[in-house]
Structure formats: C-alpha cells, structure tokens
Amino acid sequence: MKVTHTLVSLAALAIILCTIPAAMASMRADDTLASKFAAFKQKYGKVYRDAGEEAYRLRVFKENLAHAELEAKANPHAMFGVTRFSDLTREEFRQRYINGEAYFKMAERRLRRPVEVPAGNAPAQVDWRTKGAVTPVKDQGSCGSCWAFSAIGNIESQWHMAGNPLTRLSEQLLVSCDTVDEGCNGGLMDNAFKWLVDSNKGKVYTESSYPYVSGSGQTPACSTSEHEVGATVTGFVDLPKDEDKMAAWLATNGPIAIAVDANSFLSYVSGVLTNCESDQLNHGVLLVGYDDSSNPPYWIIKNSWGECVSF
User: Fold this and answer.
1) Structural domain for 206, as ranges
2) What is the mean pLDDT of residues 157-177?
3) In terms of pLDDT, which residue wins out, 101 or 288?
4) Is residue 107 located within the same domain as residue 25?
5) pLDDT tens, 202-233?
6) Given 75, 99, 143, 146, the catalytic residue
7) Quick check: is 146 catalytic?
8) Which of 86, 242, 281, 288 has the fewest CB atoms nearer than 10 Å to its CB?
9) Residue 183 domain-assigned?
10) 33 with 106, same domain?
11) For position 196, what pLDDT does the model report?
C-alpha cells in the first residue's frame, strides 16, 4: 500500500510540474498579447468607450492575430499581422470597407460590350507611379466609397495622360451627388462614369474645391456651390475578362478601375497575395501596374485606405 501511495504521489507531482510551465507559457502569451494591443492602441490612437468595450476589442484583436497566421499560410509570399483594422470583427470590416459585393455581382449580370483590345506582347513590367501618372494614396475612411476613389483615380490618371497636369480630383462629388450610386453605402465605377457623362456634363471638380468629408461614414447633400472643374470626361469603356488583354491595355492606356476580393486585406501588411477568389469581388481599387518577370508575377494596385495600407 505504501508503494502504491508513493507512485500516486509521484504522479501527482509530475502533473503539477508539467502544468507549471504550461501556466507560465500562458501568462507570457497573455503578456505578449497585452503589449501588442497596447502598442496597437498607441499607434492608431484607439480609445474605447469603457473597460467592457476594451476587453471585447482585445478578444477581437486576439482572434484577428490568429486569423492572420492562417492567412500567412495560405499566402506564402505575403506578410500578415497587426493593422489599423485589427480590433474590428470581420463583419465590421466588411460593412465599413468592402461592402461592394452586391454591386459587383449586379455588374456581372449586365450586358457588357467590352472594347476590342489588339493582340500583342505587353512589356514584362509596367508601373505608372514611376511615370508620374498616379496621385498619392488617399483615405476613404469609414465610408463604403471605394467605388468613387477607384473611378476618380482612373480619371486623374487618364486626364494626365491626355497631356494635362496631374490633378487631384473630387471623390466627394460622386459620393454626394451621383444619384445612381449610394454614397457611403456603395456603388459602381461604371455607374459613376455614366453619371458624370450623362448628368454632370462630364465635369469633374478638383479636390481642393470640393474636398472629401465623408471619412466618418456620413454622406452630406450634394453641394450646389460653384466648384473648379479639374477634368472633363467624354466616355468610358469596359475591358474583356482576360488578364493578358488587361495587361496590354494597361501598358498602353494607363491605370484601370477594377474590383478585387479584399477579404484578406484586414491583416495584410506587405507582399504578394496569391490566395483570392475572382468570383467574390467586393472592393474597388485602381490597377496601376504589374510585374510579369517576378516569381510570383503580380499586379500593383492603388488602394484608398491611407498611406499605411497601400499595395
């Protein structure tokens, strides 16, 4: 009986000794998480309503870090981690920043007559940023206006390539005045181009005369004041669903307004995204270049989430 008791005691001791390192590892992980969250709050100026909300956002932050590890495994050529969106649930992120899925699905159902793109060998690399044809990255804020930034970015570049100075143009014009789209609740680039041509005489105002004010998610009424015309649009075309033809068009004609699957953007830091769904388009961006000589080859897009989240 004594021997049996001793074995039980040793077994209990082994369990205790094994659980102490595990507990210490858990404490270290909690400390690391807390320090990362504190650094995140400081960097992005995050202030929460009360302790309850802060605890909730910490849990969301932890979940997003875990999801970032999964994204990294699915995208071996990219880096994922803490971003300004790391305290948002995936649903909050979708509603605020990538809410265009319904619009892009609607666009897919429309009868399209893509422009003919001549066959030809496109150069291995193109980057319109290096040619001075792309304005600096802007920030749409907490407003689902990616469609407006994509459309205006395209017009800025096309206007410059037509021989005019590179001019920052007004997204607010589209967000507030375009009666076909829905401001911060989403829209389509094609709709925006058509509205400008059909309803605004092709006039696009300068950003300085009609600045962006919808970053908080509000869509103010259309301004009837006089604004400076910065560019004029006479028409637009749709391109074929063919990456080779898109590259050929881009190389010759400049940046293109496109839609992408941005579900992985919540935790994206840098690198080349290789895991995305072409049938889950939900975010409007500007295609400004590509590199077909790289391994892997990649497209270059201009996003509208500020300089800290450009691609």
Assistant:
1) 90-309
2) 98
3) 288
4) no
5) 999 999 999 999 999 999 999 989 999 999 99
6) 146
7) yes
8) 242
9) yes
10) no
11) 98
Do 110 and 32 lie in a common domain?
no
Domain count, the chain: 2
Residue 58 lies in a domain: no
Would you state the structure tokens that stand for residue 263, as one six-digit string?
């579900």
- Considering the domain boundaries, does residue 304 fall inside one? yes
- Give catalytic status of residue 143 as yes or no: no
My answer on whether 173 and 34 are in the same domain is: no
Categorize the per-residue pLDDT at 268 as very low, low, confident or very high, splitting at 50, 70 and 90: very high
133 and 32 share one domain: no
The model's pLDDT over 102-139, given as tens digits with 9 standing for 90+, comes to: 878 877 777 677 888 887 788 999 999 999 999 999 99
Q: Is 275 a catalytic residue?
A: no
Is 47 among the domain residues? no
In a shared domain, residues 121 and 179: yes
| pTM, entire model | 0.86
Tell whether 300 and 163 lie within a shared domain: yes
The mean pLDDT of the chain is 88
User: Quick one: average pLDDT of 43-56?
Assistant: 97
